[in-house]
Specification:
about 160 residues; 4-stranded antiparallel sheet; 3 helices; about 25% helix; globular
Amino acid sequence: MERIASFTIDHLKLEPGIYVSRKDKVGNEVLTTFDLRLTTPNKEPVMSTAEVHTIEHLGATFLRNHAEWKEKTVYFGPMGCRTGFYMILHGDLDSKDVVELVKELFAFVCNFEGDIPGATPKECGNYSDQNLNMAKYWANRYLKNTLEHIDERHLVYPQ
């Protein structure tokens, strides 16, 4: 069996950043999958499911309501390893094309107040596994430590 692309990345060299994970052709269209890496794999603690779940709800809501990107948003959700998120957008894009969008998204999480969208028994299969305070902690950490001063080394996967 062929190894999938994400398993070919050296996770011992990977740091928080915004990376193009893959580009898929669907007919004549391109979908770009971004790796939004919030923690250093295998070196830092991973996020707990509650804050990952909250960031997922807030991030998907933000993207699907964004004036410029809502029609290009295909997916936003967590990585199974809980070190980051995948964001799939319509278009042949590079990491630098979405830096401002990702900053906006995580600022939205940092500043969010009120009821978490979709976090009711009718709307979600595990509605009570949410943690807004920790979601804000991780979002703020990603903004301050990575996004506000992101450089080329954190926009392209390490070799």
